[in-house]
Each structure stands twice: as structure tokens, then as C-alpha cells.
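Subject: for your reference before the review

Hello V.,

The reviewers asked for a structural picture of the protein, and I figured it would be easier to keep everything in one thread rather than splitting it across files. Below is the amino acid sequence we used in the manuscript, unchanged from the supplementary table.
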Amino acid sequence: MEEKDTKLLNEIIDIVRGCGAIILNADRSKGSIGEKAGHANFVTSYDKKVQEQLREKLLAILPEAVFVGEEEDIHASIEKGYAFIVDPIDGTTNFIKDYHTSAVSVGLTKDGAQYMGVVYNPYLDEMFYAQRGKGAYLNGRRISVSDNPLKNGIVIFGTSPYYEELNRASFELAYAYFKKSLDIRRSGSAALDLCNVAAGRAELFFELRLSPWDYAAASLIVEEAGGIVTTVEGGKITLGESCSVLAKNIKEN
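And here is what came back from the structure prediction:
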């Protein structure tokens, strides 16, 4: 079983890397841009192109799996069997602006629980991945969260831009953490923010509302790197619906 899982994980990594090439080679002058519900919530033709490639290739290696992609109107239940939870381009606004902070994110669940996670930043050629109980890795090297207290740490946050009712609270909480830490950062990709906590580059990340495809893969990577992931209120994150997310390196933070 372990050999089969390793093969599956490697196949997912290869598929995600191939989708990263689509992002790198994108011709933005020919890519159409649409809007979804919420402030500054965009979708491009490349989001759809990457998602379709992920659907085709992931289901080819695991045909019994359910496929849950961000760019879909209806999402299937993930409670039984395998399910891929996919964000084709996490950081679409960054992609549109050619800001070079976007990722392909693929989480695999088994009977509703996180099982594997792969997050790829094609601009830096950084491939983060994890399997439940097997540790977290970046380009083949095992990673772990830092052991710094928050006063010696960096806080990354998301502004929940699609949910205007949460904007002010997001910045108020960011200010509170700013006063307790060295500084704060805002990248525009929750998946990469979580992976940066996993890699020990930052000590804490929060966002007041995210969708499961934003964190299904990366939150597992944080946990396998020794970190802690909960809702901002301290509860368990949900994979079937949106929730807040707080990831940190050590319990005291």
C-alpha cells in the first residue's frame, strides 16, 4: 500500500507541475477575464484551462475519485471514498497582474479526511507536498515549521477581499498581530502563505474566510511540518464549506 501511495503522490506532483507550465507560458493578452460573486473575485480562461487539465489527468490516475474544483457551480460530497479538492490558480488577481505569486493546489481526501496535498509555485519552481503521517517536503527536502515565538516571527494574512463585511476586522486583527510580531506580510495566495508557515519562513497565517480549495492541500502540509491549523476561533477547519483559517508554528502563538 505504501508503494502504491508513493506512486500516486508522484503522479499528482507530475500533473501539477505540468499545469504550472501553463501558467508560466500564459499569454495574458489573449486570456479573457470574468468576474464571480464578491469584490475583486476574478476568473480567467487560464483558471478554466488548468482546471480542465487537472480534472482529466487526475481522474485518469484515480478514476473513482470525486473532483471538486473552484471553477464549478456545483460541488459533490467528499464524505465517502477519494476526492480531489482543487484550486487551479490560487492567486488569480496576482496572475492577472503578472505579480508572480500564484500556485496550483491539489488536495486529496479519503473518506472526508485530508490524505495528500500538493502546492506548486511555478514562478519559483517550488513544489510543496505532504502525505498524512509522512511529513512535509519542498522539492524533495523535508521541511518543518520554525520554533520562533511570535515576537520574533512574521505574520502573513489574507484580507478576505470577496467578503467586504470582513475587511475591517481582517485589518484590525492584522494590526493586533503586527504589534506582537516583527512584521506582517500579504501575498494574495493563501495556499502559498500556508506553505511558507510550513517551511519556517513565517510563524503565523490567518484569513477570516477561505474556501476549502484554498487550504485543502496546504493545511495538511502545515500539519505534516509540525504546525497547527484551526479556525481563527480555535475550532476544526471544514473541507465541505468555507471557514476561517489560522495556521501557526507552535502552540503558544
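For the response letter, the relevant points are probably these. Residues 35-42 have pLDDT under 50 and may be disordered. The helical segments are 2-24, 45-61, 92-96, 167-180, 190-198, 212-215, 218-224.

Happy to draft the paragraph if you're swamped.

O.
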